[in-house]
TrEMBL record:
Gene3D superfamilies: 3.60.21.10, 5'-Nucleotidase, C-terminal domain. Belongs to the 5'-nucleotidase family. GO terms for molecular function: hydrolase activity, acting on ester bonds; metal ion binding; nucleotide binding. Residues 340-531 form the 5'-Nucleotidase C-terminal domain. This is Bifunctional metallophosphatase/5'-nucleotidase. GO terms for biological process: nucleotide catabolic process. Residues 41-261 form the Calcineurin-like phosphoesterase domain. The keyword Plastid does not apply. Residues 1-35 form the signal peptide. PROSITE patterns: 5_NUCLEOTIDASE_2 (PS00786). The keyword Hydrolase applies.
Length: 747
């Protein structure tokens, strides 16, 4: 979308904000903004989603704009207003546990002047919403929300303020000018919160309602008309705030929300008589909108910018009285954070484990758990909606969003919040197989580079499906605008995890339900194909959903549960599966290596096998399928000693290699006569390389064209075809020296 709005540059804004210095009523010195008597400043926020506190980088720079900083800005700016465009009361533990009410407590302390309802204000049910509205010491607006033929919020705040409490609009006199405000809540609320939360509330078309309110405010003598809207500019929304501006007259400014967009744009209104300014600040207190209206020339002159925390924090320190309100509430959650929500019998792997980003290059059991929780919650959201009753549900959580590993044992609220710290919410959209293939292409695009696997934040942890991808095929490239063709197969899964059916990558008609977090749904991590899709449902914070799922799994397991790795993605090399490998790590008990000890070993929850450690306590496990595995080690009596994780693709607890090449096959291979097998071998560029079989009559060698990598290596696919029963070694010669790679048995 073309951004044609007038913007104030950072230097210019800093100069305006620095015109005069005064001592604020906070311990640190705040800058008082000098403005002429005809200028009105509107600070605006949207989609805060519970991010109410200020946070700071290591160097002390403001990184999240909290209510305490906004309070200072409001107090030190003459003729200023502080406005929010919805979705403030949901998304974090501190708001969830108070059912949103604490958000309004802190907004009162910060000095907010106005707010419109967002769809997530309904997440706690209608009674709670109305209670929260009553607690706000500023007008709450939702002109298009009706109940029983009357505006939803009419007279809800009676007795709180001297304003006309019609629940739809208000005129505020600032700098001697009458500024009219009205609120619009997206009609998508009907399906972007649990329908049971609505209590019979309906939503009038946003365009029609906006025109009615603009006309009424102009008729009441408003000098300026501002729509506070939770509508957004997502292509899947109809209408968008842009469409509202284009299809109405009389509106001067739209302070927008809902799509989590950073937006400053200007569009002509319906009759071309007015330019409408549309502003939105993104989400999670990452920016604040600063909009100035000067009436010095008689005609409103508008400038606007979204200001980053670092710049805003230089002008306005935190109001410590507001900080104290937040801190006091936060401390009450300490006990809750320690509350146990479940118990796992095995470790759940995510985040950075022993220096490797395990969820960013392969599936893990924790990634699968989160994805499965999404599928289950989505099913409950569409239950009873006939148009979706028979549609398969798939899910995707980006590996970069899974932030840590959970050891076996009790799992607390704080543990889940550490795994999922971003306050993301669940969104469900309607997709086709063609779109799903495109999404997975983005997810695997950065996985394999320069002859080795690499970690990428968008790697798909999936539910309801499995997929295969070939790292030797072209990858999605955002800059080159190529879609990629690495994903060779997507298979829908039955509830028991067995295969259902293979999806066709060219199928643009079959409907599926796709569940993910709001970050990806909005196009994050280059998943832009998701942003314009038909929305089906929205729900709680993802951490809450996962907490509930863990509690359910624990109950089903009668006090504990285990979650084993689901085989939902397979890496291919030119059509061949990545080969088996030998896992290797030191077994320790009480921080001491268990030397020459017999131990029982279970891989991914499988049958326990007796193995023996070396004199140094090293355990080797042969013939592990390529990729990640959760390994549990027990003593001979069956008492668990430790959990460990291996992944040869990441070089994590796989057998060491001191040869002048890297081969992805480190264990013996068994192949049926007539079948082929390939190993991936990476060697420094310029080396003289040859490849042989120890018995050409048993194993006939095969080779594919090498691939030169940008890091100075060359990748070879060396393979064989099993001609008859027998066994032989496979050898690579590098610069005249022969090395055995592995041994194969033809059966």
């Amino acid at each position: 979308m073309k951004k044609a709005g007038i913007r104030i540059g950072r230097k210019t804004l800093a100069a305006l904000l620095s015109c005069a210095m005064v001592f604020a009523t906070v311990p640190l010195t705040a800058v008082s903004v000098m403005a002429d008597d005809s200028t009105v400043t509107i600070y605006h926020t949207n989609d805060i989603h519970g991010k109410l506190n200020s946070t700071y980088a290591k160097d002390g720079t403001l990184s999240q704009i909290g209510m305490d900083v906004l309070a200072t800005a409001k107090k030190n700016t003459p003729n200023s207003l502080l406005v929010d465009s919805g979705d403030v009361s949901q998304g974090q533990l501190i708001t969830a546990q108070s059912k949103g009410s604490f958000a309004f407590t802190l907004m009162n302390a910060a000095g907010y002047d106005l707010m419109c309802l967002g769809n997530h204000e309904f997440d706690y049910g209608l009674d709670t919403l109305l209670s929260n509205v009553k607690s706000a010491k500023f007008p709450m607006l939702a002109a298009n929300a009706d109940r029983n033929g009357s505006p939803l919020l009419k007279n809800v705040q009676s007795g709180i303020g001297s304003y006309d409490n019609n629940g739809a609009s208000i005129i505020k006199t600032v700098a001697g000018k009458r500024i009219g405000f009205f609120g619009i809540t997206t009609a998508e609320t009907a399906f972007k919160t649990n329908p049971n939360n609505l209590g019979g509330v309906t939503f009038e078309n946003e365009v029609k309602a906006s025109q009615k309110q603009a006309d009424a405010l102009k008729a009441s003598g408003a000098d300026l008309v501002v729509g506070i809207m939770h509508v957004g500019i997502d292509a899947s929304s109809n209408p968008t705030s842009t469409q509202i501006a284009k299809d109405t007259t009389g509106i001067d400014i739209i302070l927008d929300g809902h799509s989590h967009s950073v937006d400053n744009e200007q569009v002509k209104n319906k009759d071309g008589s007015k330019t409408v300014y549309i502003d939105q600040t993104g989400t999670a207190a990452a920016k604040v909108g600063v909009l100035k209206v000067s009436f010095s020339s008689g005609v409103p002159a508008i400038t606007s910018e979204n200001v980053a925390p670092a710049d805003f924090g230089k002008q306005f320190p935190a109001d410590t009285s507001v900080t104290a309100v937040y801190d006091a509430q936060d401390q009450t959650l300490d006990t809750l954070r320690k509350t146990v929500v479940g118990k796992s019998e095995n470790a759940l792997y995510g985040g950075t484990y022993e220096g490797k980003s395990v969820c960013r290059a392969d599936k893990t059991n924790l990634g699968s758990l989160i994805a499965d929780a999404m599928v289950e919650k989505s099913a409950s959201l569409v239950k009873g909606r006939s148009e979706y009753a028979s549609l398969p549900i798939v899910s995707l959580e980006n590996g970069g969003g899974v932030r840590t590993t959970l050891p076996a044992g009790n799992i607390t609220v704080a543990d889940v919040n550490t795994v999922l710290p971003f306050g993301n919410t669940l969104s469900v959209k309607e997709v086709t197989p063609a779109v799903l293939y495109k999404a997975l292409e983005v997810g695997v695009s950065g996985v394999y580079k320069d002859g080795q696997l690499s970690a990428v934040g968008g790697f798909p942890q999936v539910g309801g499906m499995r997929f295969e991808f070939d790292v030797f095929k072209p990858a999605f490239d955002a800059k080159a605008k190529t879609e990629g063709s690495r994903v060779t197969k997507i298979v829908l899964l039955n509830k028991d995890g067995t295969d259902d059916k293979v999806l066709n990558r060219t199928d643009n008609t079959t409907k599926l339900l796709f569940a993910s977090n709001d970050y990806l749904i909005a196009g994050g991590d280059n998943f832009t194909m998701l942003s314009g899709l038909k929305a089906v449902a929205e729900s709680d914070g993802l951490d809450t959903i996962v907490q509930n799922y863990i509690t359910e799994q624990t109950a089903n397991g009668k006090g504990s549960f285990r979650y084993d790795s689901k085989d939902r993605c397979q890496i291919l090399y030119s059509g061949m599966p990545a080969s088996a490998y030998t896992g290797s790590f030191t077994v320790k008990q009480n921080d001491k290596a268990k030397a020459s000890a017999k131990v029982l070993v279970s891989v991914d929850g499988g049958k326990k096998t007796m193995l023996k450690t070396t004199a140094d306590g090293v355990l080797t496990i042969e013939k592990l399928k390529a990729g990640g595995h959760a390994v549990e080690v027990f003593d001979e009596k069956g008492t668990k000693i430790m959990d460990e994780f291996t992944n040869n693709l990441l070089g994590l607890n796989a057998a060491a290699n001191d040869k002048p090449f890297v081969c992805d096959t480190t264990s013996g291979v068994s192949t049926k006569v007539g079948k082929t097998y390939f190993a991936l071998v990476t060697i420094q560029k310029g080396a003289k390389v040859s490849y042989t079989s120890g018995s050409g009559s048993v194993l006939a060698t095969l080779a594919k064209a090498p691939q030169t990598n940008s890091n100075g290596t060359v990748s070879y696919l060396f393979g064989y075809k099993a001609l008859k029963k027998g066994e032989a070694g496979l050898y690579v010669t590098v610069n005249g020296t022969a090395y055995k790679m592995y041994r194969s048995v033809a059966a």
